[in-house]
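Pair request: fold both.
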Amino acid sequence: MIINGKSKISGIGVALPPQIVTSQSLMEEIHSESRFGVPANWMDTRVGIEERRFASEKTMPSDLAAEASMSAIENAGLTSRDISLIIFCGIERDYAEPGTAHVVQHKIGSNGACMDVSNACQGLISGIAVADAMIGTGAVDNALVCSAEVASKGIKRMIKQINVNDSSYFRDRLGCLTTGDAGSAIVLSRKNSPVTGIQTMLFDSKGEYVKYCYYRYEEDGYIDGQMLMKGICDKVEEVHQELISNCYHYLDWKPEDVSHFACHQVGKKSVTGLCKIAEVPIEKTPITYKNYGNTATCSIPIALKIVNPNPGDKILLMGGGSGLTSFQGGIVW
């Protein structure tokens, strides 16, 4: 699927909880070396994730999403009443129903139409695609696409469930410990020039690989999940290698034209691999995994916030997630 953008990013907001939790402390808590033969510094040295943020026990996804949303709306120079559409895209939600977008709407004082869009780590980008289409029809002038991940709750549950010396069980779920909490939001507005804003976005899905990474409820209500990091990263890289020439073709860019490369980040190996595929030096990539871990749907907005682009900057976007889903695209600031 190919999308030709009709909107621009007019505001970005990020919410990061204050509590810092180191990777080594998590590994030591589960006695990874004595029980499973995995050194306590494995995540620091092999994955590159040194720490992440944890929200308080009572924090809901809508809390972080609302905080980031207010920041994004202010950054766009708008008010909550200027927002016609709110899309929430986090993996976890306040409720199974209604959509968390409704809770965010209430917390920020908006009256925009609400919906949730779910697509694993690619959720926020999928939400942007939906909002961009709505703007393209003329139905919406300003849309808020927000997300939040409170992965710490799942991490704490998983640590309690690892109560046997089953090395294969642990290794299949080790990737879940790489995640971190964050909120993010992007305001999209109608663009007034075809040469700025969202340009082209390419999407691809390969459903045969759904079991590489999943999070589900069993029949007894038990939460189970796994993240086979090598498998999913290798397959995502294969898809990106297939897409990249078309992406540059539709954008009419060359690798050297890229000002910044904002990609979804699960660790240093994945970022290094994506930079190689895009033929963009890693110096053009804002690193989010080192201090925030894998923030799933929030990683690209965090990267954009770090970059703080200048007008005219060309930003290449790339990412993927369980499903297996992948996307590439470009924005001119």
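--- second member of the pair ---
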Amino acid sequence: MGAAAVAQWGPKGKPRSIGTSILLAIVTLGIYAFVWTWKTQNEIKNHAGIGVGGPLGFLIFFLVSPVTYFLIAHDVEQMLGRTGRPSRVHTVTGFWFLLPLVGSIVWFVKVQGQLNDYWNSF
């Protein structure tokens, strides 16, 4: 499937600046991470019909945040896989969270970078 087939799915998500998002997460003492999680999981759910969606994704992030690193990576991988596109993000990308501070940043750069490429592709 190409971009034309994807266009028949739900609305595409919003590309987000990686640097601005990281800065917002720092300045808001992590609150933006919850906003980003809600929005990203909602966009994937609305676009591809996969994943837990925003409200449940927010709750999971609030209660057991490490699970979110795997869920979002898995959803991105599945979404791209359904279009026949290779993904640089895989479920195991979630293991980056084990590396204190830097791991979360690396994970975010990988995931948001892949999402930006995908959202900008059509």
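Observation on the second member. The longest helix spans residues 54-82.
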